[in-house]
Amino acid sequence: MVKSIMVQGTASDVGKSILVAGLCRIFSQDGLECVPFKSQNMALNSYITLTGHEMGRAQVFQSEAAGKEADVRMNPVLLKPTSDRKSQVIFNGKVLANMDAVEYHEFKPTLSHKISEIYQELGSENDVVVIEGAGSPAEINLNSRDIANMGMAKIADAPVILVADIDRGGVFASIYGTVELLEKEERARVKGVIINKFRGDKALLDPGLEMIEDLTNIPVLGVVPYEQFKIEDEDSVALKNVNRLFDSSKKIDVAVVSLSKMSNFTDFNSLELEPDVSVRYVFQGDKIGQPDVLIIPGSKNTLEDSLFLKESGLAQQIQELRVKGTYILGICGGYQLLGEKLHDPQKMESETGSVDGLGLLPVETTIQETKVTAQVEGMRDELKVTGYEIHMGETLLKTGQPFAEILKENNQEIARFDGAVSEDGKVIGTYLHGIFDGSDFRHDFFNQVRDSKGLEMLTEKTQEYKAFKEEQYDKLADCLRQNLDMEKIYEIINQSDKGSV
User: Where is each CobQ/CobB/MinD/ParA nucleotide binding domain found (predicted)?
Assistant: First the structure.
């Protein structure tokens, strides 16, 4: 039997992903071979593995916390919404089909056996698997074909810890309501409760903890305080908390356009390591203002976002900033949007077929059926650049200079060009997600911005993003050790390899 523990939540955004990462770090620190697992994930933030497979970013940072290389088996099913009704279904890292909610619900039983095989294979290679649920296990309208919560717990025969967010209010009602809506067998799997994001004096909470334990007959394993960990968040809910104002204590203003179908907003987390850089997001209805750098991020639907930019008035503001000489950087879908035309002959993203881009780079993009998924390395002006590509379009550079020469793709040597740069170097387009994570390019780019503003350039590079993340995982693990009953959690795990819970 595979040793495992599953973290489920009373709702979305209660902190399941972060807690799984913290547990993975603790188990790794304690000498266990540990991996995260999430059978089904829904997110526009994704990642490409060394083998060119696409998976959810939460399982990537969880694998980093566990000291493991990201493996697509950690997230067999990834759903990427393409509209309000449809999602691209990615299985084992490759596009399977586009389905609406009803089609996918009918299809889930087909996936159940395959998920079980993948889980067992991954579990046989490790000491413990930390499984993450999705949303809430109390979605009683969906539970008959569930593969993400109690359905996954049954596949893995795993004990469950239920996480509730006290910061949003109604924590005891959410715990009790969730438990009571579970079937008897499902309720028996819940071996503990964690209350997350607590602010204040825990002594005031203690009477409630005793009462909820009496009501549910399930022990509270700990109360985790509200802490700010700089760990990547794949859920778009996190955008509610992003900064929308320039920090006047900083010298460089970076504005990121929040597209209607924005993806991979975590591309810009590493910019916080630059001591003089302020990052803010611009939403519909906001004015862009006068940033030093404007970034147009990735998009799951560039044709729709092209129309969004025009209808919101943001397109005109972007073009005005170009005239003023602002640095403008487009990544992936943002690169496509900077071009002259976007074509969709098979109408995969839009019924319009073709739309105009912003016209700031001499490129045209054609949307294609085959998705490019690759980790890449290359060179730009004698600087090493690294990142990963996820796109459905092929972009043709008509004139001018590419951004970089790609020399390695999924660990294979290759020779091709990526992106485009305007004649004055102020407009840059690239397909490379994560390009700011490497300190070489980040240091060089912002020194160019500093120089253009007459600021003193930095001589020393800032910290590597990878090293910064390692510090955050250790900090998270320390917090959980201090506030959770780890002895009890280990007891629950050690019972999980003795058959049904």
Answer: 5-228
